[in-house]
Amino acid sequence: KLSPRLQAVSDLVPNGSIMADIGSDHAYVPAYLLKRDLIKYAIAGEVAPGPLKNATSEMEEQHLTDKMTTRLGDGLDVINPDDHVNAIVIAGMGGELITQILERGKHKLTDQTALILQPNVDEIRLRRWLVSNQYGIKAENIVFDAGHFYEMMLAKPVVKRVEYSKQELRFGPVLLKQKNPEFIDKWTDRIRKNKVVLNNLNNATNPPLDKIRHIQKINAELKEILN
Ligand code: SAM
User: Fold this and answer.
1) pLDDT at 227
2) Partners of residue 10 on adjacent β-strands
């Protein structure tokens, strides 16, 4: 059984894909999808030998060596044109690192490549990169897992650049529209944490007014979103 986070990532992978899981570590996502015949083939890429070993062990234990391979390499370097990869998963890293991996491996992406991305932080940076590179966000998920809210998205190449508002970039265009219970929880929790910070700042000997106003503004915006 997958963790809620990895389950939500797996749910976004298009059926029948030839998938590359970059930074795969234990290869839980490819193993899960292959075991259920939800994808055709998987490449598990890893930059570090230890995690690559984890991926290879999982592949062997699950008897998946005919439908899967593991490769050592940086980012999208492990993908070759004759693999015909049409779905790339990058999960469990910061949005900045995911963005760097995509930017450095841009030439490996085709108009057939779906991207399934789960940044731990810095979602907005990743969404900006997607917009600049002619991707549209087709689906999003948000889950609470082991004390943290995780956002994940499915992005696909689009012919015409999509314009998202600042709010859509920050909160996720699909998540913002759906406002499901996890979304409400995440941002309600953020308002609560900001209030604690505000309280502490207001009680300081020299309250930093700029900072206080800034956080008040953020909370006002969050409350508006949740209404
Ligand atoms: N994707 C799995 C998940 O979501 O549970 C594992 C996430 S783990 C926290 C991040 C993995 O990414 C590590 O195993 C690390 O070695 C790998 N990694 C970091 N930078 C990478 C890069 N440039 N190319 C490939 N793998 C990378």
Assistant:
1) 87
2) none
